[in-house]
Amino acid sequence: MRGYRKPTVSIIGASGYSGAELTGILMRHPSVKLEKLYAHSQAGKNVSDLYPALNNSMTYAPFDGSMDSDICFLALPHGQALELVPALRDAGKMVIDLSGDFRIKNPAEHLEYYKNRKPDGAWMTYAMPELFYDRIAASRAVSNPGCYATSIILGLAPLLCRPMDTFTVAAVNCTAISGISGAGRSGKTELSYAEMNDNVRAYKVGLHQHTPEIMQALGSSVSSPGFDFMFTPMIAPLTRGIYTVLNVRFEDNAPDCEHVTGHFRDFYASAPFVRMRDRVPEVRDVTYTNFCDINIAGAGNGKDLVIVTAIDNLVKGAAGQAVQNMNIMLGYDQALGIA
After folding, report:
1. Scanning 106, 248, 283, 310, which has the fewest C-beta atoms within 10 Å of its C-beta?
2. How far apart are CA 236 and CA 265, in angstroms?
């Protein structure tokens, strides 16, 4: 089209795992132009030196506070986006933040779970496309969901955001296993091959920072929960992926699996990246994709359901979902450049 200019895109924090995943997706995206890649410790290095598979000759640059691109993705450690986003928004940039800095509305909950203070009002549209499409489309700055949160919320939203008849959820016990890339690229002894090979470890039991985000998205809160919720995150010797098992107890008898599966299919009818599966999904079903696979099973006692979800933590749990949100904000097909 004559006179058409593709929106330009830059990534701040481009050298980490999520930033590299973003780089790869945006390089291939047909309707935006990847313009700048910013990094701190890797500034001056060529992208292909760190990630040869990307085959990208761009050089990481230090971020000096100026931004020429139309759209800015931030893939930074928690706490850093709080300082950068206000200026980017004031400059009229479209902003998509992948950190947890702007996910939680309640500053007290943010302080408790992230251990850093943020001012009142430091919140942006919570950008889960399957739940908040219209809000995302009307926004210029959004907060991308966390990886664990994505896998858990998508497995529970049809039951809690659009309850079924007289079936009421009383409690959810969640166990979720993440690949090691979820901890980021910085080297840590406890995440080394020698420590993690042939090993699985629980951590932050009952205290994980995605907990208030999950409850908030499901219309509840950690301070005044509408149902009992226990979350046990675990790490396993996988490079990527999140595997979540949700044990859902109902106040009375549980609905049958076919009824629930049909309800989920209706709920996600317009969601191109949610797949209801007739068998229990596996991590390898979704790696390197933006899909969330879900299966519903009965627990055999008439009171509980078991819901299993699988996602790629770096794609649907981070970069892929972020680009999906960008597409919605720009008025593109949400699957453009991702599927």
Report:
1. 106
2. 30
Distance CA 210, CA 110 (A): 10
Cα–Cα distances (Å) from 128 to 165, 273, 328, in that order, read 25, 12, 11
pLDDT of residue 197: 87
pLDDT in tens, 134-156: 999 999 999 999 999 999 999 99
Grade residue 4 by pLDDT with cuts at 50, 70 and 90. Answer: confident
Q: In this model, does residue 126 exceed pLDDT 90?
A: yes
Alpha-carbon distance of 212 to 216, in angstroms, equals 6
Phi, psi (5° rounding) for residue 46?
A: -80, 140
Catalytic residues: 147
Which of helix, strand or coil describes residue 322?
helix
Asked if residue 248 has pLDDT above 80, the reply is yes
Pairing between β-strand 141-143 and β-strand 125-126 as defined by DSSP bridges: parallel
Per-position DSSP letters for 182-205, written without gaps between them = GG-SS--GGGSHHHHTT--EE-ST
Of all residues in the chain, the percent with pLDDT exceeding 70 is: 99
| Separation between Cα atoms, residue 181 and residue 91, nearest integer Å | 33
CATH of 8-145+317-330, one of 3.40.50.720, 3.30.365.10, 3.40.50.970, 3.40.50.10860: 3.40.50.720
Place of tokens 């949400």: 334
Q: How many CA atoms lie within 13 A of 62 on its CB side?
A: 4
